[in-house]
Amino acid sequence: MIPNLDWGRFEAALFDVDGTLYDQGQLRRIMAFELAMWCLTHPLRFREAKILATFRRLREEHYAREETSIMEAQYQWTADALNVPATEVRRIADEWLLKRPLRHLLNCRPPGLGELFERLRARKIKIGVFSDYPAQEKLAALRLKADAVACALDTSVNRLKPHPAGLQCICEQLRVHPNACLHLGDRLDRDEPCARSCGCESLILSARTAKGLGRERSYDLLFP
User: Fold this and answer.
1) Using CA atoms, how far apart are residues 134 and 171, in angstroms rounded to an integer?
2) How distant, in Å, are the alpha carbons of 52, 62, 118 from that of 65?
3) CA 194 to chain CA mean position, Å
4) Does the chain have fewer CB atoms within 10 Å around its N or its C terminus?
5) How confident is the model at residue 5, as a pLDDT?
6) Which pLDDT tens digit goes with each residue over 139-192?
7) Domain extents for the chain?
């Protein structure tokens, strides 16, 4: 059930990226096919698929670890597990998780998302974005703009969700109190506790759900 929201209560809307601003399942299917075709045409580099799968798995498993630098540690986890150079892990992860998907993101964006951002701005509600992965290039590919953007890998954050450091950083950038913010994410296990720990109200609304509403403007139900 998607609630009508009293937007008069909020000064800012804070968005997750992956799974919230685009259909992550759709993108993963596209990228799985692209990776499979790559492996078939470049059989000597087949191990890249294993490195990528291990990187994603360990990042999920180690989300609560405290590291001096999450940016560097995320690659070292896989390097240690597979006995490969961390530089190679970084090259593969950056290519397949950050660069190659960009050209597909717009096709995975739910209808009405651009209008949602416009409606928020018309109500003078600030827009913040926080992601466990770098988000600036993804926002550009999605043709969306935010007033503040932060990533878990930023030195000012350096913690993965559901730790609230990232949302706290966004609130500071926007100069709004967390209790005046609505956070929109797609994961009950990460986004909701992250928002609650920060002091924000949480709404779980995945891009897949928004696309499935079957409306020209998928987010109309958020407004009374």
Assistant:
1) 18
2) 20, 5, 37
3) 13
4) N
5) 84
6) 999 999 999 999 999 999 999 999 999 999 999 999 999 999 999 999 999 999
7) 7-23+109-222, 27-104
* Separation CA 180–CA 90 (nearest Å): 37
What phi-psi label fits residue 124: left (phi over 0), alpha (psi between -120 and 50 degrees) or beta? left
Alpha-carbon gap, residue 13 to 147, rounded angstroms: 10
Question: What pTM was estimated for this model as a whole?
Answer: 0.93
What value does the mean pLDDT of the chain take? 93
Q: How many CA atoms lie within 13 A of 222 on its CB side?
A: 21
CA pair distance 70, 160, nearest whole angstrom: 8
Segment 4-35, tens digit of pLDDT: 788 889 999 999 999 999 999 999 999 999 99
Residue showing tokens 């968005």: 15
Average pLDDT of the residues in 79-107: 96
Sheet holding 201-204, edge to edge: 148-151, 126-131, 12-15, 181-185, 201-204
CATH number assigned to the domain covering 7-23+109-222 = 3.40.50.1000
Helices 24-41 and 47-61, packing angle to 10 deg: 150
- Please name the residues in contact with 125: beta carbons below 8 A apart, sequence gap of 6 or more: 7, 10, 11, 12, 13
* Rg of the chain on CA atoms, in Å: 18
* Cα–Cα distance measured from residue 23 to residue 109, given in angstroms and rounded to the nearest whole number: 6
